[in-house]
Structure prediction request, 264 residues.
Amino acid sequence: MEIIICPVADHVGQIAADKVAKIAAEVGPGVVLGVATGSSPLSTYDGLAKLIAEGKLDLSQASAFALDEYVGLADGHPESYHEVIRRTVTKPLGLDPSRVHVPDGSLGGLASTGERFEQAIAAAGGVDVQILGIGANGHIGFNEPTSSLVSRTRVKTLTDRTRQDNARFFDSLDEVPRHAVTQGLGTIMAARHVVLVATGEAKADAIAHVVEGPVTAMCPGSVLQMHQFATVVIDEAAALGLRLADYYKRVYDSLPAWQKLELS
Ligand code: GLP
Prediction:
């Protein structure tokens, strides 16, 4: 795992965006992005938008696949991930909406939604770089604790913790859906690169488990230890639980200049 601890919390998004842009440049104009919802990746999307505005990145030919979608929200519901991705990713990054895919969370489509989404990813040639946040309980996408480490896109039941964490986006806890369609851990692991972003002390435990804990379905994000090209970009607060934080900083500092992103 590549672990980048940003001394300035506000720079996490730009560092993650630089990493994604570097990979996108290697792949070319048809890069396939994996995109996440939640507050963590928002600054990464801002960073990407800045690079686009500066003429350093062009995603107009890119495709994108979202990680997940709630089950059963009305079409156009502002908190459905179709809408969240449209607002926070498709529009600001100038993506072609016909190449942005979000799992179908409608009740009528549930039986085949996972299979259809997996086929769409395969038809696009797989995800080149997957942007990820992390839930306080270690979930990635909506792969809650005890998710199979080789799971593919399917319907999952949300934990009480996740529903409470996400209640801030709804008028009341009752309105938070109980189920979601999510890319599986196996689906996420098939992405060629993974860039996970987290900030703040509330994520410190989850990050400690993901980076230094045992690989276990009880902390789904820990499966990323088995990924060949996983990068974790965090601030000092999210790094508080890391036993080897000083070592990660030293490793990063000693990288040759061409491998480094500008940290301050
Ligand atoms: C949701 C999403 C995850 C996200 C998590 C953390 O549950 N399904 O993809 O990582 O929230 O969200 P936040 O970044 O807002 O803390």
